[in-house]
Amino acid sequence: MPIKNFKKTLNGLFISFLAFACQSNSPEKKAIPNSTRDTKYDCAHCAMPANEYPKWNVKLTTADQKLKWFCSPRCMLMEVKHPQGKLKNFSLIQLVEYYETRRIKAEDAFFVIGSKVLGPMGNDFVPVKDSASAVEFKNDHEGKQIIRFKDIDTRLIEAVLK
Ligand SMILES: [Zn+2]
Fold this sequence. Notes:
By secondary structure, the protein is an alpha+beta fold.
């Protein structure tokens, strides 16, 4: 092999080595967001990552003290209140209060339905802390009805999710 061609081959090898080195770096970079994605936050109803919706997500503690996440109140209600749901045995449900973005218990919340405010999944049950906030929210956002957790039933869930 003439010396010139040999050098070319060497250069070629070196370039392909660099290209290989770069390629082997890039999948690693891409893998970082994937590896930090914690599947424990996946919505127990629709599998969306609930931690990406900090203003809407719901934390449910099962009767045997396991933590389940939901992306939104409506996904939680589908598992807890709907006949097709699989999480009927819970000890605590914590929602995010709309105005103060702090956790409140499902039993303490006033839910406004039929408003123009959409959650991660669309129409939702928007939780607020008391009846005055519920009236304010209903008036400000064209809400249709205020309802307590104990009164939410299949018919209402299906009407809201339409
Ligand atoms: Zn969901």
